[in-house]
Amino acid sequence: MLGHHYTHSFLETAVASVNAGCNLELSYGMRNNVFMRIPQALAMGNITLQMLRDRVRPLFYTRMRLGEFDPPAMNPYSSLDLSVVQSPEHRNLSLEAAVKSFVLLKNVRGTLPLRAQDLSSQRLAVVGPFADNPRVLFGDYAPVPEPQYIYTPRRGLEMLGANVSFAAGCSEPWCKQYSQAELVKVVRAADVVLVCLGTGVDVETEAKDRSDLSLPGHQLELLQDAVQ
């Protein structure tokens, strides 16, 4: 509210938020924490103690339902480790979720799906800054992944026995330094080309928006070179 000039101070923002029913703040550190002004607002009579109790009650009710105040021995999730989270059952479920989340915008002449039994006879080129860079594959608010469980497009295709050649073209999503010669050499020798482009957290995250939807840097040029 302060950033949009609806209010003019942290104190005014705290009063307006509490009066509007807001009971939880997400902020960057204690210095810029608006709700730290609540005691001052209470002392000035801008909000009442009963109002604060009404706002806090659902927070602690939810935390109690989630078991945050229970002894660890009573929490069935406290004993789970990576062997459970990364069990074959859970990994298969993750794979199913990933497959069902794809959106196919166009499929000219039935190019897709690429069939695993045909891959060994085809030469595949996997290109682009997202083709084999595990760090850029995860979006904002993603957990810290275990490296051994990360499968880039290049690694996944190689596991299927495909004859894969690779060229990043540019090493990071901003794609400021683009090696056209590297890309063209790999693409010309391929039967099928997979171009892996995007943005990632290097380019955009929460509070770091862009003014347009264009591909960053030389990524569009990379795509045009691959198609040509």
TrEMBL record:
SUPFAM superfamilies registered for this protein in UniProt: (Trans)glycosidases, Beta-D-glucan exohydrolase, C-terminal domain
GO biological process: arabinan catabolic process; xylan catabolic process
InterPro entries for this protein: BXL (IPR044993), GH (IPR017853), Glyco_hydro_3_C (IPR002772), Glyco_hydro_3_C_sf (IPR036881), Glyco_hydro_3_N_sf (IPR036962)
Keyword annotations: Glycosidase, Hydrolase
Residues annotated as domain Glycoside hydrolase family 3 C-terminal: 103-226
GO molecular function: alpha-L-arabinofuranosidase activity; xylan 1,4-beta-xylosidase activity
PANTHER family recorded: FIBRONECTIN TYPE III-LIKE DOMAIN-CONTAINING PROTEIN, SUGAR HYDROLASE-RELATED
Name by which UniProt lists this protein: XYL2 arabinofuranosidase
